[in-house]
Amino acid sequence: MAVYRDKSNGYDGKTWRVAVYYTDWQGNKKKHEKRGFKTKKSAQSYETEFIAKKKKDINMGFSAFVELYLTDIKPQIKLTTYVTKENIINTHILPYFENKSLSDITSVDILQWQNELLMLRDDNGKGYSQTYLRTVQNQLNAIFNHAVRYYDLPKNPCAATKKIGKSKAKEMLFWTKEEYWKFAEENFAY
Hints:
Radius of gyration: 24 Å
Helix content: 40-55%
Oligomer: single chain
CATH topology of the largest domain: DNA polymerase, domain 1
Number of helices: 6
Distance between the termini: 84 Å
CATH class of the largest domain: Mainly Alpha
Number of domains: 2
Largest sheet: 3 strands, antiparallel
Strand content: 5-15%
Strand order of the largest sheet: 1-2-3
């Protein structure tokens, strides 16, 4: 494992390069290289995250784990479901937890995140629907369940908190075609 100035193949030595040896899931030794880091610190950060991902270390950053999670589930779900999950994660979950370590997130952090979601309002003062809040909560719960099931996280911090939102929406009332025509005839008779 090394981080060094990149002076090969015409590079001017102003960028940094990472070279890491790791063992893949089949037990084969592999070498991974990445170039073009502007600072040594960013190269070292990349190296640390890469090693944590390959070792399935629960001390990796939350954003790094989310990348693993999305990679793990992508082949198992429909594309539209994947796009929806990715959007919810990028919009509502990552902005709050991306700088934390996966193992450092506590139920108090989850509670504070829930409170922020509940306080969000649009220009008209309206918040998210109860069913949408539950969908966002379920997505965070799914991420932590994946970490518990496959990456040996000791416990899901969402389990200790109360779920927000509602799982079922209010009943939607629709008119039948006959009801609409009856309404139209009574109110718009010429």
